[in-house]
UniProtKB/TrEMBL annotation:
<keyword id="KW-0560">Oxidoreductase</keyword>
<keyword id="KW-0411">Iron-sulfur</keyword>
<dbReference type="GO" id="GO:0051537">
    <property type="term" value="F:2 iron, 2 sulfur cluster binding"/>
</dbReference>
<dbReference type="InterPro" id="IPR051452">
    <property type="entry name" value="Diverse_Oxidoreductases"/>
</dbReference>
<dbReference type="InterPro" id="IPR036884">
    <property type="entry name" value="2Fe-2S-bd_dom_sf"/>
</dbReference>
<keyword id="KW-0479">Metal-binding</keyword>
<protein>
    <submittedName>
        <fullName>(2Fe-2S)-binding protein</fullName>
    </submittedName>
</protein>
<dbReference type="InterPro" id="IPR006058">
    <property type="entry name" value="2Fe2S_fd_BS"/>
</dbReference>
<feature type="domain" description="2Fe-2S ferredoxin-type">
    <location>
        <begin position="1"/>
        <end position="76"/>
    </location>
</feature>
<dbReference type="Pfam" id="PF00111">
    <property type="entry name" value="Fer2"/>
</dbReference>
<dbReference type="InterPro" id="IPR012675">
    <property type="entry name" value="Beta-grasp_dom_sf"/>
</dbReference>
<keyword id="KW-0408">Iron</keyword>
<dbReference type="Pfam" id="PF01799">
    <property type="entry name" value="Fer2_2"/>
</dbReference>
<keyword id="KW-0001">2Fe-2S</keyword>
<dbReference type="GO" id="GO:0046872">
    <property type="term" value="F:metal ion binding"/>
</dbReference>
<dbReference type="GO" id="GO:0016491">
    <property type="term" value="F:oxidoreductase activity"/>
</dbReference>
<dbReference type="InterPro" id="IPR001041">
    <property type="entry name" value="2Fe-2S_ferredoxin-type"/>
</dbReference>
Length: 153
């Protein structure tokens, strides 16, 4: 089985086909930026982009991905190591606290910005509402996204 992750093709052994995309990313491919939070698709820590749409990778059987491109938090940055403008905004606005949920938050935000490059505050709230943060950084995340959308970065 072949997967297209972060612009590269990866062959995955057949015995992994019944695993979740999250397990394959972390355990088989070593892409550990995507986190396991609740394992039930409720917290958003495992969010990745599947063909540009934010999805919970803990719920997605890897066999169902097919040829659709997957983007993880590792794939947001440029190949030369420069941060994606959204990642830079996260740092500029000092969003992370413990950081555990941030990969999922970033991927959800990236999916939103692909759909709506200048989202309204209510679109931001709706898109980000399913991503939990135990440290309470939701306000900084929303403020950063509002500033990012306003600046048109």
């Amino acid at each position: 089985m072949d997967l297209h992750i972060n612009g590269r093709s990866h062959s995955v052994a057949p015995e992994w086909r019944d695993e979740s995309l999250l397990q394959v990313l972390r355990e088989y491919l070593g892409l550990v930026g995507t986190k396991l939070g609740c394992g039930q698709g409720q917290c958003g820590a495992c969010t990745v982009l599947l063909d540009g749409t934010a999805v919970r990778s803990c719920l997605l059987p890897v066999a169902s991905v097919g040829a659709l491109p997957v983007t993880t938090v590792e794939g947001l940055a440029a190949t030369d190591g420069r941060l994606h403008p959204l990642q830079q905004a996260w740092l500029d606005h000092q969003v992370p606290q413990c950081g555990y949920c941030q990969a999922g938050q970033l991927m959800c935000a990236a999916g939103l910005l692909r759909r709506a490059p200048r989202p309204k505050p209510e679109e931001i709230d709706a898109a980000m509402g399913g991503n939990l943060c135990r440290c309470g950084t939701q306000h900084r995340i929303r403020q950063t996204l509002k500033a990012f959308a306003k600046e048109g970065a």
